Amino acid sequence: MGIGFPLLLAPMEDVSDPPFRSVCKDNGADLMYTEFVSSEGLIRDAIKSKKKLDIFDYERPVGIQIFGGDEESLSLAAKIVETTNPDLLDINFGCPVKKVALRGAGAGVLKDVDLMGRLTEAVVKSTSLPVTVKTRLGWDESTKNIEEVAERLQDVGVKALAIHGRTRMQMYKGEADWTLIGKVKNNPRITIPVFGNGDIDSPEKALEYKNRYGVDGIMIGRAAIGYPWIFNEIKHFLKTGEHLPSPTIEDRVAVCRKHLHKSVEWKNPVVGVNEMRRHYASYLKGLPNIKEYRNKLVRITDVAEIDALLTEIEKKYAGFSFEKTPIELVDYHQKCPVN
């Protein structure tokens, strides 16, 4: 990638679509991933799965992430993905949602390290793309096997590993534990890049975890929802030790508007408007007495009316000084369930 300490945008189902990736790229994301794509869906030629393969040159480098629990299906899916020419192919062994994990895919594979090795090897052998993996510490507190998993994955040809510092059973609760991520990175047997993921919500925490655990880069997920500025804020802080000014109301409305228009353009006016509704609260967080406007934004269906309301918000709050407040890390799966 040619980047000293890359910041990665995590693949988030129903969030990390091209419109969202576009505003994150504008604001400093170095490497991004698609929402995860079902290997079975790709093989069935499911429209929703195929749509997730849409990638654009301005996004590069970009990876497509797939999930599944069957060697043949993952291999076939990898061949389909290769035809779309991403920069890499990522396998999801981390999704904790019941509909995925309890069907033996995503984090469900953490229960069977041998199977994880076979699935990964099947993908590596079926594509010429670099293959990476995103996973978790283990299934539960008693099976935190990420150190063994990392060695096994490297041995079958994985080129990089992103680790979320929670078990599957934790979902997104409690605090992410980076201790084992650091152990994986500092294992002399591990030579591939190791990226840490989980709870990075400020430049200070990014610097602290970079120094403490020695990871090769950081993957950011929930903290970027409605706040894509976090990538450039972290980069600036790592480089200078100083904070960038908070984005103004003009900045927030401009990015929100671009996200909306990209969403309408990529999906269609109905779906695009509907799916933007989950983002407005985050873009406008911190504004006093904003609830009435927020309620209007999630009810309006006409793009021109939404544009006009955003302009009204921008004018009303012109000059408002946003304070640096902790980013609220919600469990986005509660808002965006896997379909």
List keywords for this structure.
alpha/beta, 9 strands, 339 residues, eight-stranded parallel β-barrel
Approximately how much helix is present in the residues?
A: 40-55%
Computed structural class: alpha/beta
Q: N-to-C SSE series? A: EHEEHHEHEHHEHEHEHEHHHHHHH
**Largest sheet: spatial strand order:** 1-2-4-5-6-7-8-9
Beta strand count: 9
Oligomer: single chain
> How many helices?
16
Shape call: globular
Distance between the first and last residues' Cα: 33 Å
Notes on the protein architecture:
The chain starts with 6 loop residues before the first strand and ends with a helix. It has helices spanning 18-26, 39-43, 47-51, 71-82, 98-101, 113-126, 146-155, 179-185, 203-213, 230-240, 249-266, 269-276, 280-283, 291-297, 303-316, 332-335; strands at residues 7-9, 31-33, 37-38, 62-67, 88-93, 131-136, 160-164, 194-197, 217-220. Helix content is 42%, strand content 12%. With 339 residues, the chain is of the alpha/beta class. It has an eight-stranded parallel barrel, surrounded by five helices.
Could you outline the blueprint of secondary structure elements for this entry?
Blueprint: E1 7-9, H1 18-26, E2 31-33, E3 37-38, H2 39-43, H3 47-51, E4 62-67, H4 71-82, E5 88-93, H5 98-101, H6 113-126, E6 131-136, H7 146-155, E7 160-164, H8 179-185, E8 194-197, H9 203-213, E9 217-220, H10 230-240, H11 249-266, H12 269-276, H13 280-283, H14 291-297, H15 303-316, H16 332-335
Parallel strand pairs: 1-2, 1-9, 2-4, 3-4, 4-5, 5-6, 6-7, 7-8, 8-9
Helix pairs in contact: 1-11, 4-6, 6-7, 9-10, 11-12, 11-15
